[in-house]
Amino acid sequence: MAKTAPDIDHAATIAALRTIARRAGAVILEHYQGVRSARMKADDSPVTAADEAAEAIILPALAALLPGVPIVAEEAAALTGLPTDDAFAEQRFWLVDPLDGTKEFLSRNGEFTVNIALIEAGRPVAGCVYAPAAGVLYAAGKHAWRSADGVETALHTRAYPSEGLTALCSRSHPDAKSEAFLSAFPIAARSEAGSSLKFCRIAEGAADVYPRFGPTMEWDVAAGHAVLAAAGGTVVNPDGSPFLYRKAERGFRNEAFVAWGRSPLN
Questions:
Q1: What is the predicted pLDDT for the residue at 5?
Q2: CA 205 to CA 18: how far, in whole Å?
């Protein structure tokens, strides 16, 4: 049985995450500006040298930041397998996607991110989403903010517009069930975005809802979830129940979720 994790300095942790994410992003950009190629992993998802180089920076930095806290990271999981629930002595662990949006990276549209999230008792309590091509960093703890061009901006989701919602859809992974879900709501506009930037768009008040009924992994979602939750939004299961993490029994795979800017609409 997992035990309660001891208190940590969340402000210092978030500050360190920002530095770690930027370091990983700098390495990704070195690859982005050169020759980009990918190989397919066992799950038929692409991986590049940039993914692996970024993760090689992130993992030892997190291990030094919070010694003994387990890390579940995409590329390490592909190489050595996922941890079982028995591997967790505490309710705290990291989720890491060193390069979320590998397809965006390969197509050179800039919509890829470094995702790092700290999970406690099944919920993201701190996170960082860094878009290195744009030089934009989103961070979250008790509050959420955006950093770009040396300017820090607090993030707040917007009230739902009376004229209808702006829905976000996955650029690389459209699915019919998500479209069917949206058909039940007043949608005034739609927009596409890659990687975890969809959560950040809602967090900064540029959109209102993002349904995802296609497959994802926990490390795809957690950092964006942290940013959105700290900005006043929420991520829930389609029935409105809490969307939680550490689903080791399912291989850290997610089922459907819906990200909302405010409380879910019925």
A1: 64
A2: 22
| Domain around 26 | 10-154
Residue 1 lies in a domain: no
pLDDT of residue 175: 78
Enumerate the H helices of the chain as residue ranges: 10-32, 49-65, 74-80, 102-107, 176-182, 197-203, 218-230
User: In angstroms, rounded to a whole number, what is the distance separating the alpha carbons of residues 245 and 226?
Assistant: 12
Confidence of residue 1 (pLDDT cuts 50, 70, 90): very low
pLDDT tens digit string along 33-81?
Answer: 875 555 655 555 667 889 999 999 999 999 999 999 999 999 888 887 7
Please name the residues in contact with 189: beta carbons below 8 A apart, sequence gap of 6 or more.
164, 165, 166, 167
150 and 233 co-located in one domain: no
Measured in degrees and rounded to the nearest 5, phi and psi for residue 173 equal: -135, 60
**Per-residue pLDDT tens over the stretch 157-204:** 999 999 999 999 876 666 789 989 999 999 999 998 888 999 999 999
55/32 Cα distance (integer angstroms): 15
Mean pLDDT for the stretch of residues 127-139: 97
What is d(CA 61, CA 251) in angstroms, rounded to the nearest whole number?
A: 24
- Both tokens assigned to 169: 């859809």
Asked whether 265 and 160 are in contact (CB, 8 A), the reply is yes
Query: Are 16 and 145 members of one domain?
Result: yes
**Residue 265 within any structural domain of the chain:** no
Q: What CATH number is attached to the domain comprising 41? A: 3.30.540.10
**Is 18 in the same domain as 142?**
yes
Maximum distance among all Cα pairs of the chain, rounded to whole angstroms: 50
